[in-house]
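During data preparation, we tokenized the protein backbone, and the record follows.
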Amino acid sequence: MHKNGGLMLPKWRVKPNESTKEAAKREFQEETGLYGYQMGDEIGILRDRYRRKKITFFWFKNPSSKHSEIHDEAIVWIDVIKALPLMKHAGEKKFIEKYVLEK
């Protein structure tokens, strides 16, 4: 959850000598506290024209549990359909509609 309210998709920065996929794995673990997950294929790329960057999203599946070692009220697990009206950024909402719900 964003500090100013509303939901946002998790994002990360790629470190030097790190692939986009490696960065996604590292940040997923750091931000959720989840281990034992499976990383899937790339979902798609969201282009942020305002900040002149592109954001690559990947599928993650946690076969064991949705419980995290991190207890942070900013991290929430919510059904994607319920999340849509709560999304802070219209671009992220459109991304979910196009790449997640249409699959």
